[in-house]
Amino acid sequence: MSVLFKKGDNGYHTFRIPSLFCTQKGVLLAFAEGRVVGSADMQITHLLMRKSYDGGKSWSDMEIMGANEGDCYSNPTPVQDLDTGRSFFFYVMATAEAIAGWQWPMPMPAKTIFYKYSDDDGETWSDPVDVTAQITPAIAEWDSPGPANGLQITMGKYKGRLVIPVNGHVIYSDDHGETWIRGSFSEEIARNETTVAELFDGTLLMNTRCDLKGKRIIVKSDNGGETWGEIGYHDILPETSCQASQISCVVGDRHCLIFAAPTEGYRRNLYVKASFDDGKSYSDGKLVCEGFAAYSGVVLMPDNKVGVIYEHGSFQADDTDSSTQYEKISFDVLDVQDII
Fold it and tell me: Which in 148, 211, 278, 312 has the greatest CB count within 10 A?
């Protein structure tokens, strides 16, 4: 295990909302929010990145991916176009004026959605591109990407389409990221964090947090995310009031979904699990972090290794000091055989 972001590093109060991506060339990109003055949402927040060129054995220093005095940058969500090699990094920004005085459960502040792109595996990045106007109607108050990886569809009619999960829907591109389109929007799942994976036949599976039901929402799209089918609730995957991460990949000659989330109580005992039947059932998996653990990101690395990044801390159920929740964001490597 490697600690990538630790409370207090570089003057940040807390690090939250990790995302992990592995490029075609095997470069690992680890993203996180650096919250400047506190651990709560909608405060002054920067977006940060670290890189690894050796499978996570060593990491570069922190680089700032988004920051402006007083503003809140959040929800890192990467994807790579496997045809062009270009990587995209989506995020949202709320201005200092928008977040001033915000407290839960007030309506979420207005946000603007941006991306940056890199043609050299994250070594350099473009200037921010504002895509808010492209994905009209105007972004709803909860409309934020991820936080989790996007994907590129690899099979079927929509092969090559880039897809970014957003609360309640996806945005997608059929021209290698030149333009982006908003898929149909579901009010029923709009206020929940979403991850999207590709099934064996190119169908998309949306797996969504759902605090009210205590079960994760499952919904499919057979047209590349343009519309979504009937909403269901998964009977096996636990809901611990937390984001989860899920990717699709090939393990050996079998199509596989890899899923990471805390599994007990309120954000405790983070497991990485696998499914070989398009998400109907999952393996017992591998315990990655015992005790308090929350948001995560997962990737398939070369040589059938699974990389996982996750928030964790020493927090206990009867602990009145919430600062013991999000003490670290760590990275670990698992052998795929250990989770299947």
Answer: 148
Give the C-alpha separation, 76 to 67, whole Å.
13
**Tokens 């269901």 found at:** 232
**Can you name the residues that pair with 242 across neighbouring β-strands?**
none
Closest of 84, 68, 67 to residue 76, by C-alpha: 67
Q: How far apart are CA 168 and CA 231, in angstroms?
A: 11
> Would you say residue 323 has pLDDT above 80?
no
Q: Cα–Cα distance between 96 and 149 in angstroms, integer?
A: 27
Task: Please tell me whether residue 172 adopts helix, strand or coil conformation.
Answer: strand
d(CA 164, CA 134): 14
Distance set, CA 187 to CA 91, 183, 208 (Å): 21, 13, 13
Of the candidates 332, 334, 329, the residue with the CA atom closest to the CA atom of residue 18: 329
**172 - beta bridge partners?**
163, 181
For residue 175, give the amino acid letter: D
**Is the pTM above the cut of 0.90?**
yes
